[in-house]
């Protein structure tokens, strides 16, 4: 009896680990239940709005934050869960409120970048507009508020992030040619970006991104208890599908994941081994996978789920087109 009690107590002790398991999936082409009733997740003005036969599901990971030894052993032995040190999910130098706030900020940014990337595909380019000049910077006397920076050394500027990367690609002091639109006229200007610190070149301007949204597309996430950046790719595809006359899904149940930036680059995310299980459990047959996540996804991919490798939003669109045409896209 004494041994049994000790065994039970030892197995009931909480361990400094958390478990990650398959979480809920959400069809970005579907609806969500809110306090105001059921509402579409992605909307567009009626004149552009289309319907599709399939699904574009974002997938999530469920975190089990309080884990006893017995349950940790169960999770460890299961193919559907991962057990990781608690500090990887809840860093000791951050409060739970700080972690939640970061997750919320990433969630909001993922929607903004998804909209930007999707609208570009739909024919609405980003305009990078100068709003302010830093006194004493290289831009002073060269650029003016209201200038739209179109290109650097002849290479198109597609976003504020892209502009910063192009400027930083050469050492401070190197002469650069900026193509700008000023008062409706195109001009070419010479500038030598200064040192912004740590040897990185910078112009010394504040910027604003502007982009037309004639379709009035909106993402409504009320009622979704989700955080983090990994829904970006599926939101972008959902926006395009909502407006484009083509049914991107081809009637398939497609799931996927991946952080996205304003230029449509798709980055890796965490928990992909659990997300492929969530996708399978919710009927998906295709999983759009950031290329860096392919090894982890392949190690745990369930039967009947095809892993498609993507690096960009264009890759995902091309893969979906291949599937609709009966061709095989690039796989993990």
TrEMBL record:
Keywords assigned by UniProt, alphabetized: Hydrolase, Protease, Serine protease
InterPro entries for this protein: Lon_proteolytic (IPR008269), Lon_Prtase (IPR027065), PDZ (IPR001478), PDZ_sf (IPR036034), Ribosomal_Su5_D2-typ_SF (IPR020568), Ribsml_uS5_D2-typ_fold_subgr (IPR014721)
Superkingdom field: Bacteria
GO BP: protein catabolic process; proteolysis
Hydrolase in keyword set: yes
Annotated SMART domains: PDZ (SM00228)
Name of the molecule in the record: endopeptidase La
């Amino acid at each position: 009896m004494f041994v049994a009690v000790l065994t039970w107590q030892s197995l009931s002790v909480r361990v400094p680990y958390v478990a990650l398991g398959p979480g809920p999936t959400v069809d970005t082409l579907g609806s969500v239940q809110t306090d105001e009733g059921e509402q579409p997740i992605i909307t567009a003005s009626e004149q552009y709005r289309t319907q599709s036969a399939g699904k574009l599901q974002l997938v999530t990971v469920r975190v089990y934050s309080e884990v006893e030894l017995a349950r940790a052993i169960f999770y460890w032995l299961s193919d559907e869960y991962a057990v990781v040190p608690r500090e990887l999910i809840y860093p000791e130098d951050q409060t739970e409120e700080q972690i939640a706030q970061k997750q919320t900020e990433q969630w909001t940014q993922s929607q903004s970048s998804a909209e930007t990337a999707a609208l570009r595909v739909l024919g609405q380019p980003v305009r990078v507009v100068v709003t302010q000049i830093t006194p004493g910077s290289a831009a002073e006397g060269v650029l003016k508020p209201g200038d739209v920076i179109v290109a650097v050394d002849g290479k198109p500027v597609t976003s504020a992030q892209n502009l910063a990367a192009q400027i930083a690609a050469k050492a401070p002091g190197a002469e650069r040619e900026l193509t700008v639109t000023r008062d409706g006229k195109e001009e070419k200007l010479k500038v030598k970006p200064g040192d912004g610190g740590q040897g990185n070149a910078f112009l010394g301007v504040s910027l604003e991104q502007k982009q037309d949204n004639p379709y009035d597309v909106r993402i409504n996430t009320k009622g979704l208890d989700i955080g983090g950046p990994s829904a970006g790719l599926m939101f972008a595809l959902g926006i395009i599908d909502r407006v484009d006359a083509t049914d991107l899904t081809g009637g398939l149940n497609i799931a996927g994941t991946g952080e996205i930036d304003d230029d449509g680059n798709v980055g890796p995310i965490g928990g992909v081994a659990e997300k492929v299980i969530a996708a399978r459990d919710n009927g998906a047959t295709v999983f759009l996978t950031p290329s860096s996540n392919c090894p982890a996804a392949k190690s745990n991919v369930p039967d009947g789920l095809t892993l498609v490798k993507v690096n960009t939003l264009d890759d995902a669109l091309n893969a979906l087109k291949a599937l609709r045409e009966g061709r095989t896209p690039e796989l993990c």
